[in-house]
């Protein structure tokens, strides 16, 4: 087994879809015990977000991507007996994670104010679209609309003046995934603080806050200059040349990060005169004269295939790379060497292929040992172990539809 830095931490996960489950999968990979609470007979919506599906269990690939290492327990939180079970579980948990609408759990007495009376040192993380306060607090938030509202789509895509121009979302749920990672980071900080102070924490995370927070250099470009950044396609606002170029047989990403690399590129490409041109001698000048430089690079780059450029430029230390489809990604020698595709045993489908957690401790990737659970797979085991419920009590709760 790899290192489990969060071993002994128990998380009651009331979240679903992606941002919350991405957070709790990270915690599970780091060794926490994650109890995923799901509605009996229904479960996380993403279980049905297919095709594609696993052949036997019919679990959707979407669900499989965010739920490794968890235990699925089905409890009807709308039922008073179900609420009582969850209240008992909370008392043995360190963390509660939820992504309901603002105030949505108060009627079940599963909100922070209700639960902290049962466990004063509880760490409670709420993920919403817009946060717990403000004019948009009651709105539902979804990744696509957050990418638009938070400015990312204004930076992504070709300029309006070019063919195919217009705003484009990122190809994965960018805001959801970043929010999940911020949530995991915040929870671990709260655990460390609790160890020092003995106090619990309420964590308020909003997708919109996260999306604005990760605008990074583009946000500072605007705040520093007052100029609104525009879409540049594959180009970079602060570095030139730093974009994709057509080659003889495809495309090459050229990522020239400094003036020395630019000169070595020009020497390799047979256009050393560009490195000596007063307009292009520094990165700042190349950014200023982008519209003049880029057309001058198009023809030299078309003279070789992508693989020929990769070999030639790597030999002189100029950063570059191909644009791989996912089949080529998982066949890439570096991806294979790093073990980024993993398998886990599955109770109905034999095994399931997953993507490895990229974190390594002492050379070992941190991945939970179990596949994403079947709906309710661990209900009896968890309630028996954590609440000392007898087999007879479990049968009675099932007959009443509580679990």
TrEMBL record:
<dbReference type="GO" id="GO:0008410">
    <property type="term" value="F:CoA-transferase activity"/>
</dbReference>
<dbReference type="InterPro" id="IPR050483">
    <property type="entry name" value="CoA-transferase_III_domain"/>
</dbReference>
<dbReference type="InterPro" id="IPR023606">
    <property type="entry name" value="CoA-Trfase_III_dom_1_sf"/>
</dbReference>
<dbReference type="InterPro" id="IPR044855">
    <property type="entry name" value="CoA-Trfase_III_dom3_sf"/>
</dbReference>
<dbReference type="InterPro" id="IPR003673">
    <property type="entry name" value="CoA-Trfase_fam_III"/>
</dbReference>
<keyword id="KW-0808">Transferase</keyword>
<dbReference type="Pfam" id="PF02515">
    <property type="entry name" value="CoA_transf_3"/>
</dbReference>
<protein>
    <submittedName>
        <fullName>CAIB/BAIF family protein</fullName>
    </submittedName>
</protein>
């Amino acid at each position: 087994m790899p290192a489990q830095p969060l071993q002994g931490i128990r998380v009651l996960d009331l979240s679903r879809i992606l941002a919350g489950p991405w957070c709790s999968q990270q915690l599970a990979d780091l060794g926490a015990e994650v109890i995923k609470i799901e509605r009996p007979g229904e479960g996380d919506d993403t279980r049905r977000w297919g095709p594609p599906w696993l052949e036997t269990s019919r679990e959707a690939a979407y669900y499989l991507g965010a739920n490794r290492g968890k235990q699925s327990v089905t409890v009807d939180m709308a039922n008073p007996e179900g609420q009582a079970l969850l209240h008992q579980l909370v008392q043995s948990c360190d963390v509660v994670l939820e992504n309901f609408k603002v105030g949505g759990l108060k009627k079940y007495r599963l909100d922070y104010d209700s639960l902290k009376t049962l466990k004063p040192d509880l760490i409670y993380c709420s993920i919403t679209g817009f946060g717990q306060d403000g004019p948009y607090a009651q709105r539902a938030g979804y990744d696509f609309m957050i990418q638009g509202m938070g400015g990312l789509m204004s930076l992504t895509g070709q300029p309006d003046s070019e063919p195919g121009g217009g705003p484009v979302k990122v190809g994965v749920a960018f805001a959801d995934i970043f929010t999940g990672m911020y949530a995991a980071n915040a929870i671990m900080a709260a655990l460390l603080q609790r160890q020092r102070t003995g106090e619990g924490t309420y964590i308020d995370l909003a997708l919109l806050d996260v999306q604005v927070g990760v605008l990074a250099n583009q946000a500072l470009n605007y705040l520093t200059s007052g100029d609104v950044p525009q879409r540049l396609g594959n180009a970079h606002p602060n570095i030139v040349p730093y974009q994709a170029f057509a080659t003889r047989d495809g495309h090459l990403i050229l990522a020239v990060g400094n003036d020395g690399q630019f000169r070595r590129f020009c020497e390799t490409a047979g256009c050393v005169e560009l490195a000596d041109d007063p307009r292009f001698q520094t990165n700042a000048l190349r950014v200023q004269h982008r519209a003049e430089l880029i057309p001058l690079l198009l023809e030299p780059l078309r003279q070789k295939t992508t693989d020929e450029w990769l070999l030639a430029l790597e030999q002189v230390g100029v950063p570059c790379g191909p644009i791989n489809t996912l089949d080529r990604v998982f066949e890439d020698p570096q991806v294979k060497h790093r073990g980024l595709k993993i398998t886990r045993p599955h109770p109905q489908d034999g095994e399931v292929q997953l993507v490895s957690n990229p974190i390594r401790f002492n050379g070992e990737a941190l991945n939970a040992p179990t596949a994403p659970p079947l709906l309710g797979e661990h209900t009896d085991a968890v309630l028996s172990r954590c609440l000392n419920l007898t087999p007879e009590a479990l049968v009675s709760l099932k007959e009443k539809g509580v679990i």
